[in-house]
Fold:
Amino acid sequence: MTAARISPDGGWLRGAGLYPALGVVGFFLLVPLALILVYSFLGKGDYGGVVWSFSTAAYEKILFVKKLDGSKMLNWAFFTVLFRSVMLALATTVLCLLIAFPAAFFISRQRAFVKGVLLLLIMFPFWSNLLVRTSSWIILLRDHGLVNKALMWLGLTDAPLALLYTDGAVLIGLVYVYIPFMILPVFTSVERLDKRLIEAAFDLYASRMQTLRRVILPLTMPGMVAGSILVFIPSLGAFITPDLLGGGRKLMLGSLIQLQFTTARDWPHGAAISIVLLVLVVTTLVLAARRGTSAKAR
Amino acid sequence: MTHAQSLAMNAAIPQSGSKRRARTADQSLNRFAGFGTITVLLFAFLYLPIVILVVFSFNASNTISVWEGFTFKWYWIAAQNTDLHKAALNTLLIGGVATVVSVLLAIPAALVLSGRAETGSGGKYLLILSLPLMLPEIMIAIATLILFTTIGLNLGIGNVMIAHTVFCLPFALMPILARLRGMDHRLSEAAYDLYASRWQCFRLVVLPLLAPGIVTGAMLAFIVSFDNFIITLMVSGAGGTTLPLYIYGLVKTQMTPELNAISTGVLLLSLALLSTAFVLTKGRILGVSGMSE
Amino acid sequence: MRISKILTALAAGTMLTATTMAAQAEGKLNIYNWAGYTPPELVEKFEKETGIDVTIDTYDSNETLLAKLKAGGGGYDIIVTAHTFIEVNAKEGLIQKFNPKDLPNYKYLDKKFVDPSWDPESQYSLPYQWGTTSFAVDTAVYDKPIDSFETLFNPPAELAGKVGMLKGGSDLIAMAELYLGVPLCSEDPAEMQKVLDLLLAQKQSVKVYAGAAALRDQMVSGEIAMTSNYSGQVQRARAEKKTVQYVYPKEGVIAWVDALAIPADAKNLENARKFADFLLAPENAGALSNHAGYANGSAGSEEFMKPELIEAPELHVPEGIKTEPMKTCSPAANELEAQIMTQLMQ
Structure:
């Protein structure tokens, strides 16, 4: 009996199970990706679009910027925006993890019926529109909003706090938008956790922290990794939520790229930033995967 | 761990009877104090904005955020708005098709990927399938539109369905794959030992175990499609306006409580859909019923 | 599984209808307009008169529309876009000449829109509606007389931190240029540096950069007390909060026109022309204004307009106040604007 036969995971499919998905992504995404790569090396059209002549200007513009007086300087704007977006995406991911793991764990311990209801209740808010949902946060967080009223009623503050249009507001908004993408994958992992292993840990006098760290977390890692990817990468490129709750005061990576296709009408530059972003994300993922496996090997 | 704690834990675990022991393990799990509190706070966090959204849909004022009195008029306006109904129908069709197709693509892909090392070809292919996540939306939108016009693909909202399927795929794939990664291989081994065919093994052993992952993936894929704006904006043609596009337009120029009425209406509709599905499947809609019990 | 079958069937059905829809182009008209700017009653009337089936899609910005058309998207017979984009779209071959002058109702067009600067021979466009951009103040918060953009760009203590600005780069920069006496769409880096400095200094007092309707909402709710905005939005804000006042500064106001045009690949050219002609009739143009709250381009439409619109100070620029039409910026000027926006928001 071959190993492929034993495997439950469709080893018998050989590679064939991959073909449909690879075909669809290959044609409808890799071809556009090739186009993006080509565009990033072309000249910019006057009103958007490209001019078919080779140019590396789009990439140079990422590193160096022509000041209004014509002199060149290091493009601090880009690095500032990149740093801000990465930090915010990281914070979003960590917060989502910190909320999602206990919640998923708690839900998975409920009776089947309750479990189903709770999960549906988590998904339910996301059937309203993103923009309208986010606008509700504006009503909550503004100066005369409910949160400030509650804080003042509790006597925690005398004057309304400036909550809206801050980094904190953006963070709240991003967590709100992306939390289901963390909870659900983590839940599916936690759910299929073999309880006997935890029981065994307790039998062996492991503390709750030890059980959590040595047994539960490693076993639910796949779900947490999947969730983190689904939260981190989209929030890195998010621009609607930061725009609304940040008051449009600071550019994010997403809005910077958007700007290239709208106001700036510089498609090659937009394409170049996209490529750089892609390379950064892919490198991070590959390095993380390597470190993950070498850690396992140890 | 303090001595007292270990004593307490020791005392909590009875010495015999596997059934009782399992229950006790559950209890000790429940002692992860604070997890329940966090869950309650999570639900407060999730529903606070929704309550606001619904309350202000009854606002008589033309300005969403200034309460002026109770009215149903925005529902009446939304109910008569045929453009809106068409947009809602488009959204459901596109979301439904993109979800089903992306899940159908994701399942076999996940089955193959889960059998391969993350650092080897498995990781490589997974990366390719996750690409839609890693490119900025506006870039995907424009490049996809250029591809469609270059090859002359003109299927109306069919074009939007294709574009949505592509970026829904990673959202469908990740939970399924995460579920498979932790699966006990001996189960299907046992099935083969009992002379189950490949199909039987898949249908009777793998699929039921996979169900929660599939439902989760489908739900995530659907809400991603449901909220998508930029790609839809670029790729859609005449008659292809979806709810997000329509709502964006309204936010840009109108910004009246009709927006809230529309969102509340959509919520009610989905509540009806979800509860019907829930009742029909006797609570198995998320595939969690009967699992690990 | 059953659900997936139903959905697959649905998908197949949609694909089919989508293809058949594309096939039968006759008797149809596809309009691409800002949301809420096409009155449903007017569309119904047109459908009844002509038997043409109208589909309306909505979009969110001139810039994304340009990008979309440039990438080959569309399938629309009529688009409505800012007049500054008419020139760009025409130059890029994205819209076609449709000889509006041959339309029977062209005679109703207000003389100031015949051969306008953005369409010198009136071949590509017709005005759909027009308005001005300036700023509004809540007189309950600040009641001293205001006659200059000085108040907006260098707000007094009562208003500092309560300012909302339109977030689009062109609106923001044009207003600063008007205040500084710099020509619109300047290509002079030194002048544009002054614009950037002004906007950076003003940013300290700005609470939010947002869209027009969102700013109206916050003005009415009292979150902000001063905002740059379009005339029609301020008129709507005043209807709900009497203390909101539209300012006509001595430096002048920005004027803009949302113009109707026909994309180069329009499949229903004749129907599009019929609709353009239909809108020129004063009665229909009046209905358009009543719905969206802006002035239209047809002379004699006033008698069909709501009295509150005719009397609205926001829609009537006083004598002696300059109206500076928005300009189509050259690529060089546009690049400077993009740099200013990046540095302002970095």
Observations:
- Residues 1-9 of chain A have pLDDT under 50 and may be disordered.
- Chain A is about 70% helix and 5% strand.
- The beta strands of chain A are 42-44, 50-54, 64-66, 72-74.
